[in-house]
Amino acid sequence: MFVPLSFGIALVMMIASTACWGSWANAFKATRQYRFELFYWDYSIGVLLISLLCALTLGSTQHNSVSFIENVHSAAWSNIVFAATGGFIFNIANVLLVAGIEMAGLAIAFPLSIGIALVEGVILSYMIQPKGELWLLGGGVLMATAAVILIGVAYASMSRSGHFASRKGIIVCVVSGFLMGAFAPFNTTALTSNHPLTPYSIAVFFALGAFLCCFVFNTWLMRKPLTGAPIRIADYFRAGISQHTIGLLGGFVWGIGMVLNLVAANLVGVSISYAIGQASPMIAALWGLLVWHEFRGADTRARLSLTGMFCCYLIALVLISGAYHFS
Fold it and tell me: Rounded CA gap, 75 and 67, in Å?
């Protein structure tokens, strides 16, 4: 099983996971006119496939107790259930996040949901696995949260019209945030309990839980969508090959980020790895700025907010890195 042997390598992996988690949504934007509920089937399949591929390659470099197949045989069933439950919860949160973006707008939904998830996930993970200097970790979380808030300020200042979020949209975002932050403790428990799963095994069962959740929650949303008209599974099969391929690619990107984050957490602890990984809104802002040109014609407030966001995120990286070194 490949694992990082130094904090430097783990830090690179955590930053890479941030990039993946902040980039996967580009696949959805690239599909155009493809309902998210349909896209999500391809996305969840992609996450599961890439998790299995990593587990059978990087997670099985040696045939011993920590290789994927042997680890599944020796791990406690409770830890398998914990990992799958984390994936199930994440899937609901991720679908609600996209629904919240449609109802409340990116400026409100993304910072609100991810901001709640960041704080909650780090605190709960630290309670289960107290790894890292608490005051430095707390300072890093605050700075990362500030960065997320500044992204929202930048997007809000770019709004062309006075858009006000509905109460329903706000509720959906808040629920998404609390659920998004709740999956990390399940992974922490599966990684640290007696007869634990390896990071690669957790990724597989997490992805399996997320995929199974689609048959429950995503199917229900297709029949009773929060936005738009109801759709049928037949609409999925009418989609073009290019749309399915892009959906799978989106799942590959997010799944790689998940594996990198979990493998790094094996060394530094879930609270530190999760804190850095959940700063993904910075990467999303870069995509919006450089590729989708969402900040074309930005005013001074938007530019200052973007600058502040990058500064806060860099400070957060320094503080969270210090939380590991001084622990």
Answer: 11
* Residues sharing a CB contact under 8 Å with residue 167, sequence separation 6 or more, in sequence order: none
Q: Give the whole-angstrom CA distance, residue 307 versus residue 304.
A: 5
Q: What is the dihedral of CA 161, 165, 166, 167, to 10 degrees?
A: -160
Phi, psi (deg, nearest 5) at residue 32? 60, 125
Q: Count the Cβ atoms, other than its own, within 10 Å of residue 20.
A: 21
Closest CA to 14 of 273, 188, 317, 312: 273
DSSP, collapsed to helix, strand or coil, labels residue 140 as helix
pLDDT tens by residue, the chain, 327 residues = 888 989 899 999 999 999 999 898 888 878 877 888 899 999 999 999 999 999 999 999 877 778 999 999 999 999 999 999 999 999 999 888 877 776 766 666 777 787 788 888 888 888 888 888 889 989 988 988 888 888 778 777 766 544 455 678 778 888 998 999 898 889 989 999 999 999 999 999 999 999 999 999 999 999 998 878 999 999 999 999 999 999 999 999 999 999 999 999 989 988 889 888 877 877 877 787 778 776 677 778 888 888 898 898 889 888 888 887 665
Q: What's the CA angle centered on 123, arms 270 and 156, to 5 degrees?
A: 100
Residue 283 has phi, psi (to 5 degrees) of -65, -40
Q: How far is CA 226 from CA 29, 36, 71, 94, 173, in A?
A: 19, 12, 40, 14, 12
pTM confidence score:
0.87
**CA dist 18 → 111, 207, 212 (Å):** 15, 18, 25
Q: What gap in Å lies between CA 55 and CA 146, rounded to an integer?
A: 35
